[in-house]
Amino acid sequence: MSKAMLRAADAQTIPLSFTLNGRLQELAVEPHELLLDVVRERLGLTGAKRSCDVEVCGACTLLVDGRPVSACTMLAFEVRGRSVLTIEGLADNGKLHPLQEAFIQYGGFQCGFCTPGMILAAKALLDENPNPTEDELKHFMHGNICRCTGYKKIIESIMAAAKLMRESRA
Amino acid sequence: MLRRFRLEEPQSVTEVSELLGRFGESAKVYAGGTELLLAMKEGLVQYERLINVKNVDGLNQVTADNGTIRIGALCTHHQLETSSVVKQKLAALARLEQNVANVRVRQVGTLGGNLCFAEPHADPGILLLALGANMIAERTASKREISAEVFFVDAYETCLEADEVLTEIRVPVPEGKSGVAYLKFGYLERPSVGVAVALRVDGDGKSIEAAKIAVGCAGPAPKRVPEAEELTKGRGVDEAKTNLSKAGEIAARAAQAISDLHGSQEYKEHIVGVLLKRAFQNALSQC
User: Is residue B87 part of a domain?
Assistant: First the structure.
């Protein structure tokens, strides 16, 4: 038996029970499995993208208990008992989230590769700070990179969504 | 791709220390993983076991204790940037933490992990040197307090013994008319130069009673620079300001800057001098 097979036979599995987009998921993972791979390859949700793979670009952003993380560098077992939101879970029964509406209305994307991460990071920002200044928005979002460099429209979209969300709450 | 490893999940510091003693260099402590997992994905390091320390109770609190802020090693950068105790008592640290990497790294990465990984391009160690912090290291049967000045040995190397665990960072709250500033310069998220200055002035604000200066990121490990401090300490404010160019040159040499993609050695040395002047002014303005 090859060394690789021996090591595979020796594999440790960890039961993983967590909430994914509001629904309970139960599976078993190995310690080295990354959250991004589990979500994309095993659960088929491909909104989060692998891009830089070093926590710099934000294309793999997911929300764990409402806070943004880089799924490319988070071990899957870390979400035990926690709540994970991907872009696929953001719309409510087919009704788009105000951020999604605003990105469409204001043209907040070009190629769209960074968009799922942008929108989820922006959601975390607006949940924490419903009325950010543009500087606060830029500080929070600076770790999400748009390779098309379409930042102006992204900022406009998030500011517009913030306004919409405040108004709908009022 | 990460290679397969086994995960250990101890519940106490003693168990962590025992596991480290038993498995030696084939195991590594894993906290936030924001730096370790990158190095493992790149294949730069490999471990048969990771020891997840996040189930150990009591290591993720910030408490104020008689003039000292005690920071549990598992506190995340996000916890520290938002902690009311840190913002109130160690404002310079809160500001530094607000600007570590990005929001996702701050959410997951821990202060203890940052210090133990000892990546040269890291901010916190530099400021902790200027603040006179101490690290608490524990092992199965003992506990010791290590000055930040001796904690950092080299790039990716601390003075921790193989079975020692960093459990707490103790930071004295600056006393009297004091000011603390940390400034960094870099490309995107990676600091190429970091300079910290902590000052205390006398009652009428005319002379510098105490000064601590530390530099880092440019070279292998953060360093305090006593020779630069001497040029400002015990001197009138104006004289100290006049001496800043000289102090900057000394600090630049102490930084042991290297040339890389982010700038030449000479360039980084120049930046050390510039940041030292600015950080000094900034700290003085808070006094």
Answer: yes
Q: b or e along B183-220 (b: 16 or more beta carbons within 10 Å of the residue's beta carbon)? A: bbbbeeeebbbbbbbbbbbbeeeebbbbbbbbbbbbbb
Q: Which residues from A are below 8 Å from B78, CB to CB?
A: 67
% chain B with pLDDT above 90: 97
Interchain proximity B37–A68, CB inside 8 Å: no
Find, in chain B, the residue whose alpha carbon is nearest to that of A32. Answer: B4
Strand partners, A8: none
Closest approach of chain B CAs to the CA of A65, in angstroms? 11
As for the ipTM of the complex, it is 0.95
The answer to the question of residue B1 being in a domain is no
Q: CB-side exposure of B130: number of CA atoms within 13 Å? A: 33
Distance from CA of A32 to the nearest CA of B (A): 5
Q: Tell me how far apart the alpha carbons of residues B126 and B6 are, in angstroms, rounded to a whole number.
A: 34
Instruction: Look at B2 and A34 and tell me if their CB atoms are within 8 Å.
Output: yes
What is the predicted pLDDT for the residue at B6?
Answer: 97
Please judge whether B7 and A70 are an interchain contact, meaning their C-beta atoms are less than 8 angstroms apart.
no
Q: Is B34 on the interface with A (CB under 8 A)?
A: yes
Domain limit, last residue, from B171, B194, B224: B171
Quote the pLDDT of residue A9: 54
Q: At a CB cut-off of 8 Å and minimum separation 6, what does B189 contact?
A: A56, A143, B101, B102
Instruction: Select from B6, B41, B105 the Cβ nearest to the Cβ of A31.
Output: B6
Q: Is the Cβ of B108 closer than 8 Å to some Cβ of chain A?
A: yes
Q: What is the pLDDT of residues B269-284, one digit of tens each?
A: 999 999 999 999 999 9
Give pLDDT tens digits for B63-81.
999 999 999 999 999 999 9
Query: For chain A, which domains are there?
Result: 12-89 (3.10.20.30), 98-169 (1.10.150.120)
Tokens of A60: 């793999």
Co-location of B274 and B224 in the same domain: yes
